[in-house]
């Protein structure tokens, strides 16, 4: 589908507080916007690939799904509605930062990602590609994914500031941008924050992948870091460098 970076309002509609009770209660989420214009054959193909997904009981008061949309209630009584017709499989959702953020991994037609719904303020949604990391102080969130096929919803490295009522995008480098990584890497993952200004990343080096005897089950992932002071460029490094 050529999905790249999906940002706060690009794929999510925010509904008013007066609409939420009806929308969450209804299996078809009637208050969500109409689906985008898809060719009939494409729409049928999406629905044929869809696997059954039942929202876990402890999420049913804040999340609803009807096959075409996912709806997530905000902390203030509004609702975020995300078009999901082309998503065929979902992982079990989880909360972050108490119940402010709700997230889940998804797979679709030639695409994958990790939706993160921010339930503060009027609500919003970003896609972090893979499961995100949050700083210990709760001030920042990081997302990272890079794939050979370019099928991830993020395809890059992003940092957000977490404000009282929403997220602010402070850094993004696409996976093919000069500012993404100082060394060619494969299958990068955000591991965790060290403080607020340094992120620990692991990955395989491209040179290792190209080796004839490469076995991902026997080769250790390399330790890398990305620091605010270095414009968040991913490079080889150890956790203790984050303290410098």
Automatic annotation (TrEMBL):
Sorted UniProt keywords: Signal
Signal peptide location: 1-22
Origin superkingdom: Bacteria
Protein's recorded name: WG repeat protein
UniProt source species: Roseibium aquae
């Amino acid at each position: 589908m050529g999905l790249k970076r999906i940002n706060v309002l690009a794929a999510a509609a925010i509904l008013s507080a007066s609409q939420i009770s009806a929308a969450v209660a209804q299996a078809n989420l009637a208050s969500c916007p109409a689906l985008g214009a898809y060719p009939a054959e494409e729409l049928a193909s999406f629905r044929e690939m869809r696997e059954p997904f039942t929202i876990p009981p402890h999420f049913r008061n804040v999340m609803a799904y009807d096959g075409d949309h996912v709806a997530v209630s905000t902390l203030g009584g509004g609702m975020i509605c995300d078009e999901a017709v082309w998503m065929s499989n979902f992982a079990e959702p989880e909360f972050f930062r108490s119940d402010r953020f709700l997230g889940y991994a998804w797979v679709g037609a030639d695409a994958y990602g990790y939706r993160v719904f921010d339930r503060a303020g009027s609500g919003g949604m970003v896609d972090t590609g893979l499961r995100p990391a949050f700083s210990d102080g709760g001030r920042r969130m990081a997302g990272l994914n890079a794939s050979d096929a370019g099928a991830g919803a993020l395809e890059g490295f992003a940092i957000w500031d977490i404000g009282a009522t929403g997220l602010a995008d402070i850094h993004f480098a696409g996976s093919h941008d000069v500012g993404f990584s100082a060394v060619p890497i494969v299958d990068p993952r955000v591991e965790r924050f060290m403080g607020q200004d340094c992120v620990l990343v692991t990955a395989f080096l491209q040179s290792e992948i190209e080796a004839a005897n490469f076995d991902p089950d026997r080769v250790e992932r390399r330790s890398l870091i990305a620091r605010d002071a270095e414009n968040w460029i991913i490079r080889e490094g150890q956790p203790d460098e984050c303290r410098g």
